[in-house]
Amino acid sequence: MLKVGVLGAGHLGKIHLRLLNESNKYTLIGFYDPDAINGKKVADQFGYTYFDNINALIDAVDVVDIVTPTLSHYDCAKKAIVKGKHIFIEKPITNTLEEAEELISLATKNNVKGQVGHVERFNPAFSAVKNSIDSPMFIETHRLAEFNPRGTDVPVVLDLMIHDIDAILSVVKSKVKKINASGVSVISKSPDIANARLEFENGCVANLTASRISLKNMRKSRFFQKDAYISVDFLEKKVEVVKMKDAPETTGDFDMILQNAEGEKKQIYFENPEIETNNAILDELETFADAINSNSTPIVSLQDGAAALKVALEIIESFNHN
């Protein structure tokens, strides 16, 4: 089993600690938190080993799980990589694109693997239909959240929308050629609600909306492609797949048939992919262990994390031009 240590024992850090402690692919060595009072409190409450020195923890493990505020991601990751340790790093990968690119370069140089915590890739609803999403030409996403002061230190694009950016980039195999976006600050000093329109070189268009001042939570994405409509509810973990095929010569009484202006008839039918219950955070951590052990590419690589960050920062930059 891989020896792992966690940096950061906040809300999400404690979840990672619990899951790594339960995992049969890792041995949890301990954790580091710069707040010694919080560190000792977590150690006393849960029994995990608290390290009061970050370098001592990094030296003691094979894998470093970075669950610290975004501003410290780069420094923590660099400390681990130069010591030859594999890194799992929460999203967004870093604060700047330059930092992300340097981490990629360092990881290559030191022959270590890295994965970014874009957890929606492991959402069972998205996993159930990902292979059915084939050359989508229009995508619409809504990620709305009730107000929570935690996370308001960054724009809503980096807090929420980046989940959908990563998911979209994973299914649209084309480069973004144009971005139009607007953002509004309502409560925070950075935008709390944002909308972005991404145009890809292959003609696909994605319209993304994110808000952290909504009255209800919603995390839905809709993918439109040739002869298919696929809806993913990340929150409720449900999917809807509506497909069309050429209508048969003889149709049944209950067949749903559409006829276009040219007289072509299409039959509408529904697919119900099986959605397997899982713990998405545990899955992302354990698939990273698999990637290390098999020397394969992690499902969400450092390059993937940098690509999502690049688009997110371009969306934020676009606010300033509108």
Automatic annotation (TrEMBL):
Domain of life of the organism encoding this protein: Bacteria
Pfam families: GFO_IDH_MocA (PF01408), GFO_IDH_MocA_C3 (PF22725)
InterPro entries according to UniProt: Gfo/Idh/MocA-like_OxRdtase_N (IPR000683), Gfo/Idh/MocA_Oxidoreductases (IPR051450), GFO_IDH_MocA-like_dom (IPR055170), NAD(P)-bd_dom_sf (IPR036291)
Residue ranges constituting the Gfo/Idh/MocA-like oxidoreductase N-terminal domain according to the UniProt record: 2-118
Residue span(s) of domain GFO/IDH/MocA-like oxidoreductase: 156-216
Gene Ontology molecular-function annotations: nucleotide binding
Protein's UniProt name: Putative dehydrogenase
